[in-house]
Design brief:
The chain is mostly helical. It is built from 5 helices and no strands. The protein has a single domain, classed as Four Helix Bundle (Hemerythrin (Met), subunit A). α2 crosses α5.
């Protein structure tokens, strides 16, 4: 079975790698375009998967309600941070926008990986995880 939680974690590592590339060379227009493409493609799909497949399956866990609400809020604020990166016109504003994006995703990923994903593994059985995987694949036309 393709584990949906492992898929989320792989996506986290990929984004961290793309951010690191741009952090090394904030003036590189190609690196910024690659990062923005990843954010607007893979990460948007990742967020859709969380919102539509993961979070609803955890709604019965009251101890996660506040955490999930915060993660949903962060999805919106990360969109604003992405726009700031897209609209940055010089190396200084690119670096500033990238630092904000990097910090936001670092907090977000840490919360998911330390709280949400372990709770998911404890709360959902193999059938639920397989259903999540199927839904995620269907969203991508697979």
């Amino acid at each position: 079975m393709d584990d949906p939680i492992a898929r989320f974690e792989r996506s986290h590592r990929e984004l961290e790698a793309w951010i690191a590339v741009l952090a090394e060379k904030p003036a590189d227009v190609g690196a910024r375009a690659e990062l923005l493409g990843f954010l607007e493609g893979a990460m948007l799909g990742h967020e859709d998967d969380e919102e539509a497949s993961l979070f609803p399956r955890l709604a019965h866990l009251p101890e996660l309600a506040q955490t999930i609400a915060m993660l949903r809020e962060e999805h919106g604020s990360q969109g604003r941070l992405q726009r700031a990166l897209r609209e940055a016109h010089d190396e200084v504003t690119v670096a500033r926008a990238l630092a904000g994006l990097q910090a936001s995703y670092a907090r977000h990923f840490a919360l998911e990986e330390s709280v949400v994903f372990p709770a998911t593994r404890a709360a959902l059985d193999g059938d639920a995880l397989r259903a999540m995987t199927a839904e995620m694949a269907a969203r991508r036309g697979r």
